[in-house]
Amino acid sequence: MATAFANIAELQDRLGGIPAERIRLNPPPGTATVRDLVRVLDRENRTCELIDGVLVEKTMGYFESIVAMELAYILRRFLATNKLGKVLGEAGTLRILADQVRAADVAFVSWARFPQGRLPKSPVPRLVPDLAVEVLSKGNTRGEMDRKLRDYFDAGVRLVWLIDPPTRSAKSHTAADRFEPIPPNGTIDGGEVLPGFTLSLQELFDNAEATGGECSGRTP
What we know:
single chain; alpha+beta; 5 helices
């Protein structure tokens, strides 16, 4: 059933204060479907999330994308010798709830969550990641991320990392309202989701900021 909104202010409030320029008006808010999301991706190469029948464009700046790709690379190197699942990038749209399509900046899905252990063919599969990582951008609001955390854990995500480039810090969430702060010189632990995986925030950001020849090349 479509969600009705009386005005733009009500719509923005429902979405956690997301800037108006990220809210798509075609199709009308409250009526959008997964098919509309795929159409925008195919025709405009823009990644959107579907929230309560509203298409919301993802926001990610240039440096945030570098951080996300660096993290995805580190995870892929870890999984090359630990055959636990697959890593998705920032365009990996997943239908985590009946009416919610989310696209984490980086996500890990264990093999146990793939149907019969096989990769789905759908462009927006019904999959819930074990780990979702959000690299915070200037356009993200506190309300948006609070809502996103609730959706993730309601869907069955086990671990969420919120990485904040300006402070070079992070939060490791095991529930929407339960997290461990990770300082700039700290280390993120994969816990039961990625046993044996650790991530040095300093090394992550040093490599993301490095110019030619400066990367350490080390991975967890």
